Amino acid sequence: MGNRLSKIYTRTGDDGSTGLGDGSRVPKDSPRVAAYGTVDELNSTIGMVLACEGVDEAVREALTQVQHELFDLGGELCIPGMAMIEDTDVARLETVLDAFNEPLPPLKDFILPGGGMAASCCHLARTVCRRAEREVISLRHVEPEVRPQTQRYLNRLSDLLFVLCRVLARAGGHGEVLWQHERRRKPASG
């Protein structure tokens, strides 16, 4: 392994800037930092799913692979010009998604976040993933050299996380929490 951090604080960011992987410095609120920061947040929320009791080994294996790929994706966003996420990574997500989705019954209603701790944490990861995707899209507007594979990966990952929410809710014995759209149509009493 290359350089190791022996000192955690450097004070170089006290002026509101941060160093990218290529050595350049940018404001901490730049679109690039927002994008890879949100990918880091996403990785942390997936860690919360993995910390939950009773997560099936197949789900655990899929999400651990995703965590590694998110670290690569964050590195790609942190180092302008770097290419780490490929079309094969997106295709792998599609294969995993299809395998988890195939045994599930078709959806007839919207699902509310819930269904036990693991499913709830996965819903949180799904929403953070959507935000990471939006951040990457915003970054691509100002820095078009950002590769489309990152955006496609996050889009597909949010779909996988949605399916895993369903899987985890069912596996945890809580079931999916369905939106009760008919509740609004009840006549007012009184």
TrEMBL record:
Its EC number is 2.5.1.17. The lineage of its organism: Bacteria, Pseudomonadati, Pseudomonadota, Gammaproteobacteria, Lysobacterales. It catalyses: 2 cob(II)yrinate a,c diamide + reduced [electron-transfer flavoprotein] + 2 ATP = 2 adenosylcob(III)yrinate a,c-diamide + 2 triphosphate + oxidized [electron-transfer flavoprotein] + 3 H(+); 2 cob(II)alamin + reduced [electron-transfer flavoprotein] + 2 ATP = 2 adenosylcob(III)alamin + 2 triphosphate + oxidized [electron-transfer flavoprotein] + 3 H(+). Residues 8-167 form the Cobalamin adenosyltransferase-like domain. Pathway: Cofactor biosynthesis; adenosylcobalamin biosynthesis; adenosylcobalamin from cob(II)yrinate a,c-diamide: step 2/7. It comes from Dyella agri. Residues 1-31 are annotated as: Disordered. Belongs to the Cob(I)alamin adenosyltransferase family. This is Corrinoid adenosyltransferase.
